[in-house]
Specification:
The chain is mainly beta and about 150 residues long. Helices cover about 5% and strands about 55% of the residues. Strand 7 and strand 8 form a beta hairpin.
Amino acid sequence: MKLSLASLAALSGLSLVASPASAQPQGVTVATVKAQDAKINDGASCDFNAVTPGYLTPGKIGASGKIKGCGPVPDKCRLQTAIMVGPVSTIAHKDTGWGKCSGTNKLVYKCANRVHKQTFYTESVMQIEWRGQHASKIAHSPKATLYCG
């Protein structure tokens, strides 16, 4: 099953959170959405989440998607994570590919400038396969307004 992150992101709303660049902490913000559950009937399932984008270093923002746990464990999993700006624009994307059902999918975006303020969020798409059946689910992080053009 192929999913387009850009088309799925259109389902999310947009809200602004204003704060000056000097008030932004160093490091990735730890706010996450409630764990989502990708599940196949009464069989395999995985909990995962999307972490709010935040500054890693001056000029770089980071975000991640995390598989929190599975049980029963699917045959294989795939976690796609994207940093989104506005309602539907993907500016950075990382795909784990089909493989083990654990871990964190981290990505970094290098800002073109730190003058313009934009609203970012993380989108994670979890796909699982179990006994020939597939399931997928999308998680969006809370939005963050950062100086990153």
